[in-house]
Amino acid sequence: MTQALVLDRVSKEFTLRHARSIKNMTVRALRRERLRDRFTALNEVSAELAVGDSVALLGTNGSGKSTLLKIISGVLPPDRGRVLVRGRVAGLIEVGAGLHPELTGRENVFLNGAILGMDRAETLAKFDAIVEFADIGDFLDQPVRFYSSGMFMRLAFSIAVHTDPDVFLIDEVLAVGDPLFREKCIARLTEFRASGRTMVMVAHDVSLLRDLCSRGIFLERGQVVWDGDIDTAADLLVRKRKERRAAIAAGRTA
Ligand SMILES: Nc1ncnc2c1ncn2[C@@H]1O[C@H](COP(=O)(O)OP(=O)(O)OP(=O)(O)O)[C@@H](O)[C@H]1O
C-alpha cells in the first residue's frame, strides 16, 4: 500500500482559562478554584491512509475532528506524535481562511493559490477555470469583504479544489452555500475521488459522508473508537447523537 498520510500517536491539549478578568481570577483564587485546566482534544490518534482513500472523520460535537484536520493541514502543530503526508495537502478547513478581505477576488486567487502551493504560472493557467467554477461574475475585481457568504465560500472552494492537491481536506464547507453550488462541489469531490486522490472530510451531514467516503474514523473525546467502513461509523454517529439528545432532554449533559 502506498501511504498518503500517516498519523502516529497524535496528541493535542488546550489550555482552558476559567477566568479572563482580574475580578474573576480573584474570586476563583479566593474560592481556591482552578484558574485554568489542561484539556485533551486529541489523545494518541493513529491511522494510516492509502493513496486514494476517502475518509470521513466523525464524532459528536467537540470530539476533536476539526483539531485533527488542522493538525493534518499543518496549521496547528501536535503536542506529541507525528504526521507524515505524501505530496501536496490543501483544502478548506476554516471557511474563508486564507482569503484576505481587503484584496479583490482576482488578487485572492493568486495569494491563496500561493498559500496552497501553486506558483504564479500554475495559478495563471488555472485562473479561468477557478473563476468559472466560483461563478462570482462581476465581483472578481471587488474586495472580497463585499462578497456574500456564498460567494466567499465559492471562491475559497474553487481555489482549493483547483490546486490539485494529493490530499484534500474539507471541513464542513458544504454546509454553507446554495444548493446548486453544493451539487457542483459534490460532483467535483466525486470526480476527485474517482481520480484516485486522497480525501479527508468532516461534515455533519451523514448521508453526504456515506456518499463521498468509504471509510470512517470515529472520534470520541479525542480518541479513535472506530476506524473502518463508513456505514458502521455513520450508524454509530446517528446512535450517539440520539443518546446525546436523550441525555439532554433528561436534564443530564452527555
Ligand atoms: N484553540 C482552542 N483552545 C481551546 N480549546 C479548543 C481550541 N480548539 C478546540 N478546542 C476544544 O477542543 C475540543 C475539540 O474541538 P474540535 O473543534 O476539534 O471538535 P469537533 O469534533 O470538530 O467539534 P464540532 O463538531 O463541534 O465542530 C472542543 O472541546 C473545543 O472546545
Automatic annotation (TrEMBL):
Q: Which UniProt keywords apply?
A: ATP-binding, Nucleotide-binding, Transport
The ABC transporter domain extends over 27-246
Signal sequence coordinates: none
Q: What highest taxon heads this organism's lineage?
A: Bacteria
Pfam families linked to this entry: ABC_tran
SMART domains, A to Z: AAA
Keyword Nucleotide-binding annotated: yes
Q: Name one GO molecular function term.
A: ATP binding
- Read off the InterPro entries from this record: AAA+_ATPase, ABC_transporter-like_ATP-bd, ABC_transporter-like_CS, ABC_transpr_TagH-like, Bact_Polysacc_Export_ATP-bd, P-loop_NTPase
Name the protein family.
Answer: Belongs to the ABC transporter superfamily.
PANTHER family per UniProt: TEICHOIC ACIDS EXPORT ATP-BINDING PROTEIN TAGH
Name of the protein this chain belongs to: ABC transporter ATP-binding protein
